[in-house]
Amino acid sequence: PADIRDAARVRSAPAPVTDVARLSVCDLLVAQCDVNCCCDPDCSPEDFSLFTTCSVPVVTGDSHLCSQKAAVYSLDVEANPPERIFKLIDQVNPSIFCIHATNYKQALYLKSPEIPTPENFDQLLEKYGGASFRAEPDSWDLDTDVQNPPEANETSRYEYGLPVQTEDAFLRLPSPVVSSWCSDANPAGFLVNQATKCIRSVSVEKCDSIQALSMLFYINSSILAVPKSSQMVNITVQSIVVQSVNGMRTLLSSSDVLRLPMVLDELCINAVLGVNYHITHTDTGEIIEAAAAFVLGAISKEAISIEQSFKISFTQENTQPVPLSGNPGYVVGLPVRAGFQPPGYPFPAAFLSNKHSQLTILQSTSTQDCLAAQGARAPVLFGYNMISGCKLRITAAMKCQPLAQTLLDVLKGQSFPEFVASFGNSQAQDVLDWVPITQLHISEQMISHTLQSPCQIPVSLGIEVKWTKYGSLVNPQARIVNVTATITTSTLKQLPSGRERIIPVTSSVVFTDISSPAEPSYKAWPTIDIKLPFDFFYPFV
């Protein structure tokens, strides 16, 4: 009977939508092993042997399903070395209110609401204007015997590190592998900014037939907007720079015409010497634009090899590209990122960066003249203690207030930032990732025989950056937790006519590590409070 057939169809379990064996809720570090995260795909057997426990022993999908797969992780501490144990079991939900089949496909993703317009307003009002309404799916798929296609578990967006796919393979970023010679088998990873240089073997007589010297080799394959999709993004030519044999470069006014390599007067012209890719993506991991900037050059007949340079960078749409100083923690030697809050904002919604998005100090010049050094700045590099300065020549004709303001501009710059990024990759919209700069003022002793009336002029700026090690002990990340900028001023008096005085002005940066040292395990050992006999160690003292 039909009822029996329908009951048999209902008993068959649907194909899982989520592969729990590939889920990991404790995988927080990108391309790195998280401590005690037994489901982290970046961990090797050597890493598992150092684990003490599994922080997440069971990984499941939707808890509302009546029956589903569960990934169970544990450690075999008796093995030598200890190893991870993985099991995939069937888990049954004891609740009578559970979901047997997720056959309502519209509930598996977030659908953008339909925006009312003058054309569809009456239709939407008729559908949703009542006291209640129901959204029927287009079709109910009750045939649970049909397994999901293999692509059901594939990602529909690019994730960090995934190769950027093209219609034939992947976006190539040539790089040296074993030796310095170029290998075209290196794929460009999504959101992985890279810069490579390698050596390419060439022959002037055959330069028009060497694919790696042609612009078409780098732009002829369209990029897939998302992995395994049919939507293509063409690579456009952003700019073309032509380099002569003696190294002089000229930017072409038009980049619409492709310049292919060819032999002319025993020279191979229009050969690709460098390619700079720029990829624009959405916040959901979809590539929407791709551009390439080329450097073309001439190769002489005597050359048997050339050096090629390649670079790729990624920018999210509707954002300005900001250079990072680490991911996530700061890297020693990279600039400390800084910015200031827009005036008039009722809440700290975003931070506008200064010219270079960096914390800067006074840059020393060869003349050591403070008035001539105004505007010369040097970036503050993380982990590097720095000191710079100049000399101020004071005469009786100088006015106090203009001089004080000029010195303050020399020390702090035209727009001294108000905030410093706590991490090397902090984004402007992440308000909690920005540390306010505490500004202090200290008055020094009086300097006699100076200006016409006593006044205060700044003579030094000291910046102290306190940072700590954040995250896993295996791979700690540098995080800035406090920044203090101290302006030291001196009091000046009248200077006799015809006399002058030279005052040194200094600027310095000091980095202080305030990380708490790891407590040794012996502190947890029990102690016995007893008194030994006075001659216990006799004859030793």
Walk me through the structure.
This protein folds into three domains: 20-102, no CATH class; 162-316, no CATH class; 324-513, no CATH class. By secondary structure, the chain is mainly beta. The radius of gyration is 33 Å and the shape is extended. It is 7% helix and 34% strand. The protein has helices at 2-11, 45-48, 121-128, 216-219, 400-412; strands at 58-60, 67-76, 83-92, 175-176, 182-183, 194-201, 223-224, 232-233, 235-243, 249-251, 262-264, 267-281, 287-299, 305-316, 337-340, 352-358, 360-362, 377-379, 386-395, 419-421, 434-447, 455-470, 477-492, 500-513. It starts with a helix and ends in a 28-residue tail after the last strand. The protein has five helices and 24 strands. It has an eight-stranded mixed sheet, covered by helices on one side. β22 and β23 form a beta hairpin. Belongs to the tectonic family. Part of the tectonic-like complex (also named B9 complex). InterPro entries: TCTN1-3, TCTN1-3_dom, TCTN1-3_N. One of its GO terms (cellular component) is MKS complex. Pfam families: DUF1619_N (PF25752), TCTN_DUF1619 (PF07773).
